[in-house]
Amino acid sequence: MKPIRKFTVRAVVPPQLGALEELAANLRWSWHEPTKRLFEHIDPAGWQRAGRDPIAFLGDVDPRRLDELANDEGYVGWAERERTALREYLGEPRWFQSLGAETPRTIAYFSPEFGITAALPQYSGGLGILAGDHLKAASDLGVPLVAVGLFYKAGYFSQAIAPDGWQQERYPALDPDGLPLAVLRRADGAPVQVTLAVPGGRSLHARVWQASIGRVPLLLLDTDIPANDDDLRLVTDRLYGGGGEHRLQQELLLGVGGVRALRAWSEVTGRHFPDVFHMNEGHAGFLGLERISACIRDGLSFGEALQLVRAGTVFTTHTPVPAGIDRFDRALVARYLESGLLPGVDPADALPLGLEPGAHPDESAFNMAFMGLRLAQHANGVSKLHGEVSRSMFADLWPGFDADEVPITSVTNGVHAPTWTDPALIALAEANLGTDDTEHADWLSPAVSDGELWSVKRGMRLQLVEDARRRLAAAWADQHAGAVAPDWVRRVLDPDVLTIGFARRVPTYKRLTLMLQDPERLAAILTDPDRPVQFVIAGKAHPADEEGKRLIQRLVQFAQRPELRERIVFLPDYDMGMAEKLYPGCDVWMNNPLRPLEACGTSGMKAAMNGALNLSILDGWWAEYAADDHGWVIPTADAAPDPAERDRLEASALYDLLEHRITRLFYDRDHDGVPTEWMSRVRRTLANLSPELGADRMVREYVERLYRPAAEHAAVVAANGAKPARELAEWVAGVRAAWDGVQVTHVESGGLDSTPHVGDELHLRAHVALGWLSPDDVAVEVVYGRSVGDDRIQDARTAALEPDGTSTTDAATRVYVGTVTLDRAGAFGYTVRVVPRHPLLLSSAELGLVAAAG
Prior knowledge:
Layout: H1 18-25, H2 33-40, H3 44-49, H4 54-60, H5 63-70, H6 73-91, E1 107-110, H7 126-141, E2 145-150, E3 158-161, E4 167-170, E5 182-183, E6 193-198, E7 202-213, E8 216-222, H8 230-233, H9 244-269, E9 276-280, H10 286-297, H11 302-311, E10 313-316, E11 327-328, H12 330-337, H13 347-350, E12 366-367, H14 368-375, E13 378-381, H15 384-393, E14 409-410, H16 417-420, H17 423-433, H18 450-479, E15 498-503, H19 519-526, E16 533-538, H20 546-559, E17 568-571, H21 576-585, E18 588-591, H22 603-609, E19 613-617, H23 622-625, E20 631-634, H24 643-667, H25 676-693, H26 695-738, E21 743-750, E22 761-769, E23 778-787, E24 793-803, E25 813-821, E26 828-836, E27 851-852
Parallel strand pairs: 1-2, 1-9, 2-8, 9-10, 10-13, 13-14, 15-16, 15-18, 16-17, 18-19, 19-20
Antiparallel strand pairs: 3-4, 5-7, 6-7, 7-8, 11-12, 21-22, 22-25, 23-24, 23-26, 24-25, 26-27
Helix pairs in contact: 1-6, 7-26, 9-10, 10-11, 11-26, 18-21, 22-25
């Protein structure tokens, strides 16, 4: 019989064990092994049943066991020591505090999802896991971050696989009272509530849950409260659920409501309101409009407020394809903006922020990524290659500039090593290398023998095998009304066979089924009597992605072949709990997207942190770090005449690597049964690659290259009652109005013989019409470099041309001169251009205005 309502009853913990409740309330336990061991000691079996979640565990543990431990001085002392360690961690100065005074006081990090732990299922995939790792690393480094997201009543979805291989979705409701969350309350105990005006004269209300991620507060907005109409209670029902208006409501709540929640949080806690706002993708873009609205209430115009907001905003794009961007019907967005949602903001000013370049204003969709880029003066992709892709993809926002000049940089993602490194590997580092920091340990040291490291890897492989068997048996029972799984399920996988992992979301570009291009060849690889291979595969397709579901079905049906089902398995319901076993248990991590459509691909990083070697297309992070020491590159067949041929060629290359290089290296053993050359690569991966892949490296880069510059720039623009912002807005408006009158009317050159040589000097004299503008408003530049067949300048460089003081008959025309030294041989080309110049612009391309010689 099903219950009509479910709720969580928390255990009464004896006062002597009050430390346990304090430790459970801070999600630092999710990456802190000593705290996990403290809870596991209470009841190891119960700890596993509770999914290693202290909140759930304390609700299930036998009270008599707690009473017993309350009288155990040794255990009480242990718990107190861990609580003291937590308090020291939360209060002591760390890396960020060593940087001095010129740092942001508070940084707001907005994301639609956060993957902190399986115990708080508020994530769907890589974007959320990355956000969770960002928060954890920020905590470890002492970065004063506060994070903002939404609380989804049903999370993403739970996945089951039907007997025919088709994905099925379930949405089990979560009870926030049973999660490591607390309602944000004011000093009088009243819960904080934020309110948004929505069409129809109605209001959308949200309470604010708070989670503690080490030193980082995470605020999650929840609309499932009685103050809302029934339909509005469902705004935060599911992550990435519902249609266009539902998704728009979620993103308005995240951006607008999130900033309002931060104001309340700042008042309640006394913490500084953020200096810097970081949008993790365009979903949170409306935060900029809410901040503009507040500036308008303080007396600024829209244009002035825009300059103030842009200066302190960072935008990170994660998508390499336009199809991955949220786009809303412009009329729908207008209806919400006209509802009084943003006091002082004229929809006529706000709507152009989402306009797609080249589209008619009345016909363009409202593009969240374009709005994010227009609202942020600092932007980045998530790997070097993705930075290049992003500069090309968004180049239309900066017309007339080459892609290399588009003001989008890159910070390559990283993963949080303490979260993703297996405890067995940590224990080996502690015992042999004297450190629990596996990310920076000396894995090349003879203090760890090949045999010891090989034994640990074998143990992690066994752990994965046992977990896979348990999950498959449970899935069988779900599919067959509680029936006992057949014997073959207990034989699935082998802890002594080369194990390859492949797990991720299942959009078509990630090519889940590339390995099935030649099914019989793959079957032969899997069942080779001397060098067998086994695959462990997992992943979810979006509920609306029918093609993604078909890919899963095809793979599952292949894996159901009786002669193969013990060598290739698809594990349903991929989540963080599964991932913690999957990454360490694999010897090889495979990734075969269509290049360059993988923005970063952090799953391979997590596997590498556990000594797995990568087998990947040269895309995302792997394009930066690929080396023989770390794995193998699957050759890319970019020149193939069609997609099918490309898939065939790349799959064939994959099979060749498996048959002739990877399996031979893995099964080539010394007299002790250890694959010495394989282990040499494992060691070099752990020693040399791990430090580059850490989230601490990533967050340091964000601080040094984006957060600090954004805070400094915002302070300059906001000084003296935002006088610089006002002046900059007036200047920008004037330059835009006058730009049609700017021209390079004539360019003269000299100084070269009929056959130029390296070292010769090219002298230039350019006549430039400035119209209403003054010479202080512009920079005149020569752009030069290699000139190739398409008549474009490659590897372009710029040099300033200076006014020579020559008068002309036209008072608005100025003469600029300069010299370029020819420092390399080959085809050469140049042009002269004019760009806006202002000390508060961070890039000459920023306004998207350029006048070039025709």
